[in-house]
Write a structure and sequence with these properties.
The protein is α/β, with parallel strands linked by helices. It is built from seven helices and eight strands, in the order βαβαβαβαββααβαβ. The chain has a six-stranded parallel sheet. Strands 7-8 form a two-stranded parallel sheet. Helix 4 links the parallel strand 4 and strand 5. Helix 1 packs parallel to helix 5. The longest helix has 17 residues. The chain starts with 12 loop residues before the first strand and ends with a strand.
Length: 225
Amino acid sequence: MHEGSDLVPGVRRMAVLRANAIGDFIFALPALEALRSAYPEAEIVLLGRRWHAAFLAGRPSPVDRVVVMPPCRGVGEPEDFVNDEAQLDAFFARMVGEAFDLAIQIHGGGRYSNPFVRRLGARLTAGLKAPEAEPLDRWVPYRYFQHEVLRHLEAVALVGARPVVLEPRVAVTDADLEEAHVVVPDDGRPLVVLHPGAGDPRRRWPASKFAAVGDALASEGARVA
């Protein structure tokens, strides 16, 4: 484990691996904001999925550019996924050509994502490490039962990026508002969105409890989605 948290000198471009779904991206935003504050002149390149590129196009965020990574076993794809090695080789050759000064891994415990990040050819790597994962140049232990926002802030602190926000916020664009108005026209009532479910059964709230909350909100005049 690397205890230091010094800023890395001469950083012009950094890669950040976070190739999950939208909820996972939202939890990573405070860490991305910390990187933007610590390295205001550096280009932050998110290695993500096609939806990241579409979602962030024209939207203010700490990310400067999205590189859509190819499907890769254990890094956005199931562990039984069969890689297209030629496609991955071409991708990594292109990434080495980017000459990243930093590569940050905030995509899980690192069993698959740490070797992925090391192949980017960055001058320095940093991020999370589960017991079975190979180490990066600077790393902190991956603890499953840890708040996602704090976990990622710990990871970027390895390169001197101090927290500037704790609550994730996404900039809403005019296009968002126009699209939302078509789907949910404004009728004067407050709109409350319930988001039931979780990947891990231990983190799930009973469906009956969500129903009770929804009924209570509706009785008070809210629209419940």
